[in-house]
Amino acid sequence: MNHVLNEGEYRLENIAVRHDDLVMISGCSGGGKSTLLEELSRRGFATFEEPGRQVVREQLFIDGEALPWTNLPLFVELTISRSINFMTEAARREGRTFFDRGIIDQIAGLEQAGHAVPPVYLRAAERLRYRRQVFLLPPWPEIYRNDAERRHGLEPAIEAFRYLENAYRRFGYELVEVPRNGVGERADFILSTLAPQEPG
């Protein structure tokens, strides 16, 4: 049942307590993350869609400039803030939550573009932790597609995947590569890899 937020409920400290239930799904752009999140949601698990896609959709709607191809630093600022919001909201819920990208993905994006990463983003990545196991979807050329929110080609997406791997390892996460199978098999793989838990 939905309830109205009471003052003081928005507590980032809860993330540390619940981090084991905050499961990150990352990997190559166009590798099937959104479809996989939809499958996990269909099975009853809480999910949050990719922050970057939300921001791009909003900025295109309002003719804003916080787009990765227009103003990457501003885009990253908004997506990291939204990622923190998603984590905080998830930490208030019962059960396991799955995320499509997060703070470290945005840091990796800045690094790939040659931008300096502000110390505040590094502190966010260190203090606000997901579950140690991070599920990575590898490049899958056969299903890669462009759209209004994904304008880059496959080669930059594969390069970004390498930056992601390095960034997550640098922040101490254990990477688990998800096999290129059907979406149901991928969901089964993730759930069987995690400790058993019923949907929240």
From TrEMBL:
Domain of life: Bacteria
SUPFAM superfamilies linked: P-loop containing nucleoside triphosphate hydrolases
Gene3D superfamilies assigned: P-loop containing nucleotide triphosphate hydrolases
Domain NadR/Ttd14 AAA: 23-186
Pfam family, any one: AAA_28
Name of the protein in question: AAA family ATPase
Organismal lineage: Bacteria, Pseudomonadati, Pseudomonadota, Alphaproteobacteria, Hyphomicrobiales
